[in-house]
Design goal:
The chain is α/β, with parallel strands linked by helices. It has 23 helices and 22 strands. It is globular, with a radius of gyration of 27 Å.
Length: 699
Amino acid sequence: MGKHRTRANGRAAAAAAVALPLSLALAGGALAATPDHSSAGGNPPAHSNAGGKNAPEVEARVKPVIKKGQREFRDLNANGQVDTYEDWGKSPSQRAADLVSRMTLEEKAGLIHITSERRGAPAGTVVDDPYAPTVGYVEDRNIRYLVIRDNPTAAQLADRANDYQELAEASRLGIPVVFTSNPRNHVNPDQQFGISEATGQFSLWPGSLGLAASHDPGVVRGFAEIAREEWRAAGIHKIYGYQIETATEPRWNRVSGTFGESPELNADIARELVLGFQGEELDSESVAQTIKHFPGDGAVLRGLDPHNAQGQWAIYPTEGSLYDYQLPPFQAAIDAGASSVMSYYNVPSNELSADQLPKHLWYSEDQQFEEVAGAYNKAIIDGLLKGEMGFTGYVNSDSGILTTTAWGEAIQAMTLEERYAKAVDAGIALFSDYNDPTGLINAVNQGLLPESDLDPHVQSLLEEIFTLGLFENPYVDPANAQEIADSAESQAVADEAHRRSVTLLRNDAGQLPLTDEALAETRLYVEVFTRTNAANQTAALKNVIRAADPSVQIVDTPEEATDALVLVRPNSYELPDGSAKSVELDANTGVNVARIQEIEATVPTILAVNAVLPWVIEDIEPGAASVVATFDVKTEAIWEAVRGEFNPTGKLPVTLPADQAAVEANASDVPGYAEAFDYAYTNAAGDTYEFGFGLSYEE
């Protein structure tokens, strides 16, 4: 059951093994003579303590293990006794309180930061130790929350996690590392910082809108349970996700990371995500969720990006929209037990908003909102999230709020130390993607913030780490991690989710499906439209089709064809003057509208649009013979739908706008289906492409 191994024995041999820092080698070597507490011939059988609680597996690689009868405890401060924080028989609350009392200001300040796990050095630099940048964060700055942003294999992730856990174990108090990631289980042709920076190393699922297109929260629950097992096996303990905010502004670039525009469906999905990743209660098999971005980043001015100054405003022009549309998914996640919440970047605008908050939450008698970013906004965090909605977890800021995205005129005028003090007072417990706690330490030393104000936040963070079981055994098996990640059974479940997300919008010409009989007579023209690597993506799609149907005739020009398959994968862009984002299809999105129209005029065309934003399709939809909406799915699923290997059942998770004028007239805080005018696109067959619409093949 218990294991105690020196580094030489404990280091996994899998994947990208590198030399560890000298400081860690010395820490391990100093304790190498500690007796091995594992039983001869393998681990001892599981047992219960006197209270009937099952004893956890205990593994130490650097510090001693103390044995009391059949029970084992890691002696993380190496003082020869089992202190309260080392005693897994105590509650997480008791253990955390004990550990807080032992921590220095520097250790508390370090724990309150989460930063990207950085490897290597600037381009062109030779690096002997690729771990060195992050080692300093853990060893010298007491940081324990790390965000993984690269895309290694599961075995490599596990091996790396073990290295850092040994480093953390060697520290004064042995506080383990919590590895965090943005989603990494989805098809993502354009990986984006903070949305999905990795793909293809675990089971591969549709994008979040694709999961929502199934309109079945059970599909989401199945996904979350599989992903949880994969992540914990690889040593990942916390997810920056999911984006459960309601997508009410079609131009907002992060619609692609949401579950669509319905607050009801989003609420159902939010609940299943929390229960799937965390379980009914957080425990040693959970991945802790950080749901984001409270109270809903989707209601942004003209779709502009809140990472940039011109996009900093959250607007609520429709009275009651905050409670009606934005908050329900967050309430569902809170009720399901979400471990943490991430605040948004945005500054709520008084001028551009109707009444939203109850009067007791107003900033002043005549100002509804304090016009500062979410991480500094006490009424939003402490008053709304914790007070009104009953959230008892901790609040994680978004990246850069201390520096590049410190929005709000009052915040801009503050020193770094003053920003720390205001954010902590507002309720921030974890500062994201900032790796130097010095400013927080200075804020305390300058009298801007009592050290005691940090303690409740440190307590909350430690309770999460204790509950996740990391103080007993933070180590994972790289070979097991890879085996779980490579599971054919998991991918089979994911493949079914891809099929269930494909949404048939029009088939009035009866072009689909291409049966075996029809395919024998078909000469198919194939082309992909996207901003970069369109030719390569076209070639890849042709290869998928040939692999599925080796006899298919793929021709080089529309003129030779009897049918065409056009796959449109637009890319979002901001207007050159910075005034708005755009969902209009043109060269800026990588879509050659004239060329698509030419193909459609030449040959009956299957038009498949990757609708990860609510694109304006009025210029390319009418000329198609059949229309399919996809949401970051495997191309195999698109071809299977075309061939009729399954009957499409997907339903739109967002409403597609009628035209650009409708986009510009939309209320940014209201779903497309709830707009006060004829917002949605209607095709020639009389079908309206509104939330929930989708066809199936005739039986």
